[in-house]
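Hi C.,

You asked whether I'd gotten around to modeling the 1018-residue construct. I have! Everything is below, sequence then structure, no commentary in between.
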Amino acid sequence: MRPLILEMSAFGPFASVQTTDFSALGSNPLFLINGPTGAGKTTLLDAICFALYGKTTGDEREGSQMRCDLAADSVLTEVTFSFALGEQQYRIRRVPEQQRAKKSGDGYTVQKPEAQLYHIDTDGTEHLLVASKVSEATAEIELLTGLDADQFRQVMVLPQGKFRELLMADSKDREKIFSQLFQTQIYRRIEDKLKFQASAIKAEVRDQRNKRDGILHNIVLDSDDALTSELTELTPTLAQASEAKETAKLALINANKLFESAKLLVKDFDAQDKLQQSAVLLAEQKDSMAQRQSKLDNGQKALQLKPVLEGSLAREVERTQAQAAVSQVQSTKLASEQALTVSQSKFDTLTELELKCQQAQNDEQKLTQLVPQLQGLESLQTALSLATNERDQAKNSGIKGKATLDALLADKQAAEQQVPQLELVASQQVDAQQALTAQSELIERYQQWQVAAHHAGNTEQALQLAEDKGKQCRLDAKAKGEAYDQLQLIWHRGQASLLAQKLNPGQPCPVCGSAEHPNPAQSEQRLPTEDDLESSRLTSETAKDALSQAIADYKGLKAQLQEQVKLRDEYQQKLGEWVSHSLESLQAHLQQVQQQVHHANTAAQALIQLRQKIQSGQLKERELQTQLDAERERFQALQTRVATVQGQQEQALAAIPEQYRSLQALTGAINQVKQQLATLQQTINHIRQSHTQALEQDAAKAAALTAAQSSLLQAQEQADKAQAELDSQLSTSGFSDKQALSHALLSSDGLQTLTDEIAKYQQDCIANQATLTLISDKLAGQVKPQLAESELSLASIQTEQQLAEQSWQRVQSRVTQLTQTQQQLKEADANAKKLEDEYAIIGTLSEVANGQTGNKVSLQRFVLSVLLDDVLLEASHRLQLMSKGRYRLIRKEERAKGNKASGLELEVEDAYTSKVRPVATLSGGESFMAALSMALGLSDVVQAYAGGIKLDTLFIDEGFGSLDQDSLDLAIRTLMDLQSAGRMIGVISHVSEMKEQIGTRIDINKSVLGSEISIVLP
């Protein structure tokens, strides 16, 4: 990776936007990052690491803690970094979480973290890869660079005070870094694949063994021999039970045939009884049917006279309706005559109303002519009011402006007196912030230790409860298993007494076949049923399942406790001596540091605001003086304008009557006259229309009365004619009057119903007599059988057959179960043998590949050890140069103690003593030279391997101060050699010799308003 452009805004000590163009340093530069303590040299590397991964190089500060307190509220904290990977270019922008000023209104709001990643084409076109999610951007960067944040810090940056980490990393940590750099994950996948296959086969072998034990457990047997023995014993028993079952089945078939014949005969006798009862009922209905026949005859005769009756009734209704119509029209005629009289009296008043209407029109014209004059007067009044208000406002504005100017001068003088004290407090801001970060991290580790200790204590209590529960479940499972075995024994022994209870004298025994039963078996205790036996078995199985679950819970809690204790001890080790302190004391100290930070931050912010206030006050002073001069001139002009408008107003008032000098009063008077005129016109029109309508309605009512009287005469004639015809028909039909005829009338449905009932009765009589004759002939000489006796005999035979069937089913089921079990055991043995043979191969390969044998070196670690040897060869070449031939880095080949991973640890060979010793024994300066050599050698070897990550940039933060003059010269010469080989090397150092020998620099200048960056070229 090669940096191109870095842009920071309100980040660290940089209050404003700072841009660093690395391409301006030249191709493959060796440059120095120079500046005083606290200026922001390391922040430059933090910004690169934060842009890529959202973390700083030292991982000691969060992105949200990197905001510059000197920055203005409107400036957003963000970092934009452009870089190249080979021929491809990318740009990433990252914004941390922070408090920012609201876009509208006062106060602050939380700016959520965001990130955007772009790919840049050769023509400069950008393609968005990640829109906003920080996690997606970090994942994409890790995919592009092949490194996570920790690995980036170890191979491309030697952070201040942490360069020994690259040397002291154990095999496990170094394996993670090297596997990413050399892309050896395929060997790890081979290890995992073999381990997964071996584990799966081992689990299958265990499952097969458990399955075999479960098969025997399901049939309540302990061994294969017991299964074979029971099968041998059950073979003759099954043959006997099968023979008894067939005999009982044949007896049941014969008994069923006899019982069905008896049931059919009883059914015929019952049918004969029902037919005889029906014949009696039909005879009782004979008189009722005769009455119905008479009613039917009268209804048919009345049906012929129905049209004449309906015609007479219709004419009578028409006459009644005509009489009602005449009465109604007479009433409406009288009302129309009265309405005409009232309308005529109103029509006579029209002349007087028309005179009033003419007077209202004249009044409206006079008032309307006053409107323009009044509007002119009101315009003058408005102009006078506005001019007076403006004059008064100009006067007040001048007074207020003078007071504001005096107050502004006083504030400016007071602010200038506060500046020195605020500068002193604000200078402590950086030190206080660093102390706050350290104390916050200490409290976080302390709380993590407390939580881990609390969880371990809770799990320990849960483990004790699980152990007690397991003991209780074991006792419960044992007791319920023994109860089931005892109940099963009683059930088997009691089968003989159950059979004996069903024996009858003279009937053969289903077991021995004898018809005599001199000594049947008896039971002195209550025998369990099959349901009791099944319930006991399920209870026993449930108890066993509970025991298995309790054991699994105990094992899980035990493993969980081990992990929690390990985590608690790790946290405690990290805390060190701080474990003896209380959380309250740590938090109290944190509050003190927070107050210091708050005071320093408040002072820095107040200092910025104060300086801005002083500068703003000077500008405001000049503006206020200019405004005061303008207000004086404006007041004089407005005073003249007020006098002019007052004269014009007095002339206009003389031309308008006093009661109409208000536009509202004049408008009200005009509207009142208009409303009066409209009311008069509406009344005149209404009277004329009403009188015309009254005349028309009276004429229409007279014509309607004449027509109604004519219709009444016609209706009376028709009604009399229809009544005469009805009387003539009644006299010849046998009905006494109209009421008798109406009573005899039946509906068509009623006539049909009577006809159908009479016909059905006659058919029922004929059918009953014929069926009764047939069944009586069939039953002649027969005796009705007793079904109860036959049913009891059949039930007894059915019981015997069911007992024989159940006895055979039990034996047959057990034989089938045992036979299937034998086959299952054979299959399980064959599968287990096959899996064990397969595990002998895969398991051995997995152990070798995962470093579980020999020197405990896994396959990937073995490959990486070869690559590490190449790295150490290159690193030792540089280390020998810088150490004047004394030191050489070598790989430790001895196996680590215990189960710790080994194969990638480092040692140093001392040419002065001819001994090999741990790298931890090197001094500070020697460790820096070794770490620098290691980083450079790693860079060379990684790029030499195809598919490796390209490491063409290295940043070194401090460390040169621990070298003597000769070692420093050799280190600088080594870095210059790397520059000529095509590397970009950035160095942070306070050593003066570095500044003398490295002409290309990035200078960082510190000030109270924030640091600034400049590039210095030789």
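If it helps when you're writing up: The first helix runs from residue 41 to 53.

Thanks,
B.
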